[in-house]
Amino acid sequence: MAEFPLPDDCPTPARLLPPDDTQRVLLHNEVHARPSARIRLPALIVFVAVLNEGVSREQECEHLRRLPGQGHLPLDSLQGNFLRLRFEQHTLKWERHTEFTRYSLVQALPEEAGLGAAVPDLLRGLAVPAEWLANIPGRTVAAIQLAMVNADWPDATPAAHAALMAQAQRWLGRDSLVASQLGGGHSWALTDFALRDDGFERMLVIAPPGTTETRAGRISQRLLELETYRLMALRGLPVAKALSPTLADAERRLAAITAQLENKSTSEQALLDELVSVAASVERATAEHAYRFAATRAYDTLVSQRIAELREKAIPGTQTIGEFMQRRLSPAMATVAATAQRLASLSERISRTSDLLRTRVDIVTEAQNQQLLEKLTRGQELQLRLQSTVEGLSIAAISYYVISLLLYLAKAGKAAGLPLHPELAAGALVPVVLWAVWRTTQRIHAKLHRADH
Question: Sign of torsion, CA 131 137 142 148?
């Protein structure tokens, strides 16, 4: 195979490519846009997700500038939707998504909050001012205190598992927990999915000594995203419940319209007005809530993906996170999906009913047009009869005037000395004049008929 060596002054290989697409670098770097944090155990992650509707990047940047040493934070640093601020003893990660913004504070776990503690106060040694946390712009949708600790990993005996579970129950202050072994048995994740008096949920991750910082970062990211996406997915449930009476009323009205179409007891105009009213209410509901239902489906898919990424194994005597989600989240998602399908089906039924009504109106219109044509036909027949009568009278009148002229002409000839009897001459010419006038009329009709064709 022939080789084409590059000259010594050849440009770099990147310059041998065609010009880059305007979005090539942006799309290429998307996979690196939100890297996992590196977390050294034991650690505390204080996570807050807020809805950012009506909150600009400028407002979020101004809030970040209130942190120590960040007074000159440039707005351009927030354009990539991801920012990690590193401080001496902690880090703060900012992430902006379509509907919400996440703030993740990673700091060392307080010494008194270790695995042997009983419901420890995790916010006592908060690395950022409490006022700063409370004044984050937006409305809170998720708030989690995730503690990640090391513990000597027990063997597979039930007694060892029971002892570790007892410590976790004491730490979380709950007897009934949702718990899973993550990574096929590498570490434990435990929570009760309950809101505490301070507005936070609590999660506990127990990992063996030697767990790498990157692995701890991935575990925390998956758990926090799982809970955030679960809550965002559930935002479609109140919408679905609130929409149910509207859909029931629309279905009832549409059924009544269909029944009236069948028995023809109501005028087409009244049916059309009622159908337009039903269609308007359904289309308004579709326009207002279609995005929410689509977002719910997307978030539910993300929840399923994050659960699969955890690679759970059951802990004897406890329910796994995936099982909890399946039993608690799935009915809500089914309700939302059913409402969305019900809305789409109702729109299709309205379209079919509209087609039926249009067909009925077309049939009535055709019948009316047929009656009108029949009336026009009868009118034309009467007009033709009248025209024939008028033509007959016209022939008689024209013949009368012609004969009168001939009579006067004969009288003038007699007065001039011609041997004529005017009355006899005029009477003799009557048949000839009638035939000549009739024949002339027929020729005119024939000429007009040829002109029309």
Answer: negative
